[in-house]
Structure prediction request, 187 residues.
Amino acid sequence: MNPLQNWMMCLSFWLFCCCCMPFLLFASPLPQKETDVRTNHSCVLRTVLPSYIKNCTLTIAEQARLSDKDTDNRFIGQHLYANIKEKDHCYVMKRVTDIIMKNVLSELKSAPGQYSNVKEVANFLAERNGELHGCKPSGKNEHIERNLKQMKDKLDKLGENGKNKAVGELDLLFEYLVKACTKAPAS
Prediction:
């Protein structure tokens, strides 16, 4: 190639890059921002589970499981989320925590001899629930209320054994609460 042709090709390439490429870049659609499933900002826990509380919870749950002979019933699990949108999972776990606090842990706090460190765990749960006080369901909550009523009825039906089982599932309660109510790490 002669130098003049070479120079013309180079010049036309640079003109294309400088003049046309910016228009192509600005005209292309921008990638969508990833949105978190939970749009309700009051349904987000800002505090992580300290290792001391986690160890206390595991100890209490293990103590309760030793005397739990009922392997058929489960209070905490995926069945609580049946027919419920993912963005309402935190609200469900907040309500489950309310039920456990009111019907199980409030009695145990007054008789702490049965389980060591139950006051610390109950107080920590109460603080987390306070953090979620503004958490509301995103729409109609008929399914949520039905699932919670089934859980509460089962707890009442099992009586003391049900309370013991609920204590044995405290570690699951924390796990589900943290999973449902903490933001996913930004990637």
Notes: The chain has six helices and no strands. Residues 30-39 have pLDDT under 50 and may be disordered. Helices lie at 3-27, 51-66, 89-110, 118-131, 142-168, 170-181.
